[in-house]
Specification:
heterodimer, A: mainly alpha, 68% helix, 0% strand, B: alpha/beta, 4-stranded parallel sheet, 14 helices, globular
């Protein structure tokens, strides 16, 4: 592999250098295509910047690898299981629409209008999450609108590093408000068994069903834990195969991309609070393990609340943040008319993270 | 002893040295090592560090050989003649089992001596961290440890003090470790004090690519632009790194071309609050808060977040995936100008 690439290396490097000098010497071209070239070049080549102040050597980890690890984990966590359960036509088309609209259209146009010198790779993560949190039968225009909303919202607030709330969840909230009927239905049954060419392409033919959480709300039925874990129970496109999500999430934690305190406190608090509440009122409150394995909780615990920008920076405050998420999720799921509360809980705690953070700073430094 | 943070640089940067020690003499008459003794009553504690935590630093075997007991005998002479009031602690890194067992045997017979074993993690050999771990005394960075009665020195300085003060012989040369990607070979040199850098680097650097020279390591040390500078006793090691200021194709595969160079290995981005900096911080600070405050122009506020505890080891900047110059921000906020401004506004 390395030998093969070494052959292409010198001519490719030379041509990229040539394009770079051309772009930098022509103002209009730089204005239109500078950011796109930088993004493309950044995938193929390292940066040329050197450390000018102490320390003069730097660690190999950069934001590209940070986001790359999340992208790999998400691919294993939901894209591959999604293709098995719903067919590639469903998953790949949504991903294509999401990336083309979110990253290649909205983000590029934004970079041109706002005269930014680079396109952030964080957009890929948001656009990979948008189809995952929408129903499998969501129309493609809805996915495109969601991806566009996520990127516009993030960029308005100042881009990666300045998000107030998780952009993917914000776009889902926006879609829930605007198109409630489209998000309440379309939960197709996943395919189970030995796949053939037909099911790998289409999945099962459009049999929709109520999600396990709304089923419990309606008549108290509890779906089997095994089917929830493996992914044969229905739900949003990316949240069904909890086993893959848990494994890829643990890998992320091991890579130190996700902070272990957040999933531990979220899972722990959901387990403890739902246990406590179900002891108090058995009919209304679902048992703890069912709550852990249903809905978007696993996806949220490993990929949404671990988003470091929207979580608190202080490590102790992370426990409060995670427990808060768990508490609100249990409250919303069991004592309101909503069947799933993870999204609202995370969005609310995203906002509360700012006062929690400043409170912890005040307590620690007495300022 | 449990430390939070720090990093084991020996795993990250494996530097192999050539075992032959080359002698380099100065063109001018060499300078003589001079150690002004502090008054006897002042020194309560001597800390001898046999724990280089940086892979480019001088390892113990170069100065001590394998004669730990001979070295400790010399320390004993120093203690009895020069600092009779003082207790002595010898700090050895965890992997040097030979030195540890010999020193522990020695300490069992001499009650003035204590042996501490620490992980070879950077920056555990910093005087501030050492005095906190061994004596449980808080010392601010930059403060003279002697004012608290603590004298910290490494093996080579201890031997030099012994030779010049006890044996009354002049010391005019020292061992220096030469390493880095900009050199043809990593080696140890015994160089006379006052030799110019130019003479040392001549015929040793790779002339093909641009290089940069650092004294006392690329993490804590200084970059040297003027090669006429002379070597003095404070120079422990010289690191010559390939500058690598050009773009490298396929950085994921060609990691060897970027490793241990001055390349940033990434681009400057906004902070994502990933907690890398406070995880790695050896003194348990939260450097991202400094960045946040600095960005808003609130340098005075930054000073209230325990900034004086920072030991300027540079690990926060080293680990930052967004390549933010956190150490520069910290130094700027620590500077007396900001302090004066703070006093005026109050």
């Amino acid at each position: 592999m390395k030998k093969l690439l070494n052959k292409f290396e010198p001519p490719l490097n030379k041509n990229l250098d040539r394009i770079e000098t051309f772009i930098h010497t022509h103002g209009t071209v730089n204005f239109l295509f500078g950011a796109i070239f930088e993004a493309f070049d950044g995938l193929l080549r390292s940066s040329k910047h050197t450390a000018q102040t102490q320390p003069f050597i730097r660690n190999n980890m950069d934001t590209k690898k940070f986001m790359g690890a999340v992208l790999i984990a998400l691919t294993i966590g939901w894209v591959l299981p999604g293709i098995y359960f719903y067919g590639w036509q469903c998953v790949i088309s949504k991903l294509l629409v999401s990336f083309v609209v979110g990253v290649f259209a909205v983000d590029v146009i934004w970079a041109i209008i706002a005269k930014e010198d680079h396109i952030s790779e964080g957009g890929f993560v948001s656009c990979l999450l948008v189809p995952a949190i929408l129903p499998p039968q969501a129309p493609l225009w809805l996915i495109g609108l969601g991806a566009a909303m996520a990127i516009i919202f993030r960029n308005i607030l100042g881009g990666v590093g300045h998000n107030l709330v998780n952009p993917a969840l914000f776009s889902r909230l926006f879609l829930t408000i605007c198109f409630p009927s489209l998000l309440a239905t379309g939960y197709q049954m996943p395919f189970a068994g030995i796949p053939d060419l037909h099911t790998l392409r289409y999945g099962l033919d459009t049999i929709t069903h109520a999600t396990p959480l709304s089923e419990f709300k309606a008549d108290g039925t509890i779906t089997s834990y095994l089917s929830l874990l493996i992914g044969t129970a229905n739900g949003s496109l990316g949240e069904t195969c909890r086993l893959a999500l848990i494994l890829s999430g643990i890998w992320l934690v091991k890579m130190k991309v996700a902070n272990w305190r957040l999933p531990v406190s979220y899972f722990g608090s959901v387990f403890i609070f739902s246990g406590m509440f179900s002891l108090l009122s058995k009919e209304n409150v679902a048992p703890p393990v069912f709550q852990l394995l249903s809905g978007g909780l696993v996806l949220g615990a490993f990929y949404m609340i671990t988003d470091p920008i929207t979580a608190t920076y202080n490590q102790k405050a992370k426990w409060i943040y995670g427990i808060g998420c768990g508490f609100i999720t249990v409250l919303l799921r069991n004592y309101t008319t909503l069947s799933e509360g993870a999204m609202y809980a995370i969005l609310l705690m995203n906002l509360l993270a700012i006062p929690i953070q400043s409170l912890m700073v005040k307590i620690r430094y007495r300022t | 002893m449990v430390f939070k943070g720090g990093v084991n640089l020996f795993d990250a940067y494996k530097i192999r040295f050539c075992n032959i020690i080359e002698e380099i003499s100065s063109d001018t008459p060499p300078e003589v090592f001079n150690f002004t003794l502090p008054s006897e009553q002042l020194v309560k504690q001597i800390i001898v560090t046999l724990c280089p935590t940086e892979p480019w630093a001088l390892p113990n075997w170069v100065t001590l050989g394998h004669k730990t007991t001979v070295f400790l005998d010399k320390i004993k002479e120093l203690q009895t003649i020069l600092f009779p009031e003082a207790k002595c602690s010898v700090v050895i890194s965890y992997n040097e089992t030979e030195h540890i067992s010999a020193a522990k045997e020695y300490a069992a017979m001499n009650e003035w001596l204590e042996v501490f074993v620490i992980d070879a993690k950077y920056p555990y050999d910093d005087p501030v961290v050492l005095s906190k771990a061994i004596l449980n005394k808080d010392i601010n960075f930059g403060q003279d440890t002697l004012s608290r009665g603590i004298l910290v020195f490494d093996a080579q300085t201890a031997l030099a003090i012994h030779k010049s003060r006890i044996l009354n012989k002049s010391v005019n040369s020292r061992f220096i470790a030469l390493s880095g990607t900009g050199l043809k070979e990593n080696e140890f040199i015994n160089v006379q004090l006052g030799t110019t850098l130019e003479k040392i680097l001549k015929n040793r650097v790779k002339e093909t690519a641009p290089y940069r020279v650092f004294i006392n390591g690329p993490l804590r040390g200084m970059e040297i632009k003027d090669f006429a500078q002379k070597i003095d006793w404070t120079v422990n090691d010289i690191v010559v790194l390939a500058a690598q200021d050009k773009k490298v194709m396929f950085p994921m595969i060609n990691t060897d071309r970027l490793h241990f160079t001055t390349n940033l290995l990434g681009e400057l981005r906004a902070c994502v609050y990933c907690n890398f900096c406070d995880d790695i911080c050896p003194v348990n600070l939260e450097p991202a808060l400094y960045y946040q405050g600095y960005n808003r122009g609130e340098k005075q506020k930054v000073r209230s977040y325990d900034i004086e505890k920072c030991i300027e080891c540079g690990l926060c900047s080293f680990a930052c995936p967004s390549k933010i110059e956190l150490l520069r921000i910290i130094k700027e906020c620590k500077s007396p100008d900001v302090q004066n401004h703070e006093e005026i506004t109050q």
